Amino acid sequence: MSVDELHLDIQELQRLLEFTNRPNVQAALTKAIEGVEEKLANLKVAQEAKNLAKAESEDGKPKTSHLSLPVSKIRTYGWDQSEKFVKLYITLKGIHSLPKENIILNYSKKSLKLVVRNLGNKNMELIINNLAESIDADSSSHKVKADELVLLLRKASKTQWSALTQKDVKPEEKVPPYNPSEDPSAGIMNMMKKMYDEGDDEMKRTIAKAWTEGRDKSGGGMNF
């Protein structure tokens, strides 16, 4: 498979990722994208090695390339947001000394890919394929500061992001509706039981604590 075909596969997978909201599907697509990107990187390294070998055989001088350097994943960064932008702060010692062309950023509607070439004899890489909200790729940019790179993701709308990635977005807690036709105490009991059954561990602990305290005071309580 050629480099161009792998690029097309990645673009198609990213397009599919933008149109799904199911966490399991997003995870599967993200894993598939990472797999194709790994194949693409390996193919580029192989092609570059072949080209270097050919060049050396022609003039007898050793050649070097960023493609032959090890790749280090960027896993630590901070982020915040304003009304118009989501900002990622990445500490990279010496990045301000690199040529501009060594910093490569590709933005899409719900993803980004950063490659920093030949920083400390390594290529640095950050890939985020499941942003929590959409961004304006054409209006997104970056700034280089002393030992720091700031990514400026332009929001597609003035939505307040609750998380950076879709997988970290917490679902809204659903409170069951109150039915006025029910006996008040029975209605509250049913509502609390439903909240307990559908709640997370923290919700269960909170309700169980309230139930225990109520039982100790009144001698009764809810049966979960």
TrEMBL record:
UniProt keyword annotations, A-Z: Acetylation, Coiled coil, Cytoplasm, Nucleus, Phosphoprotein, Ubl conjugation pathway
**Region feature (Disordered):** 164-187
What GO cellular component term, any one, is given? Answer: cytoplasm
One annotated GO molecular function is: S100 protein binding
Question: Per its UniProt record, what Pfam families does this chain match?
Answer: CS, Siah-Interact_N
Question: Which residues does UniProt call coiled coil?
Answer: 26-56
The cross-references to PANTHER family, in alphabetical order and at most eight, read:
CALCYCLIN-BINDING PROTEIN, CALICYLIN BINDING PROTEIN
Q: What does this protein do?
A: May be involved in calcium-dependent ubiquitination and subsequent proteasomal degradation of target proteins. Probably serves as a molecular bridge in ubiquitin E3 complexes. Participates in the ubiquitin-mediated degradation of beta-catenin (CTNNB1).
Q: What is this protein called?
A: Calcyclin-binding protein
> What species does this protein belong to?
Stichopus japonicus
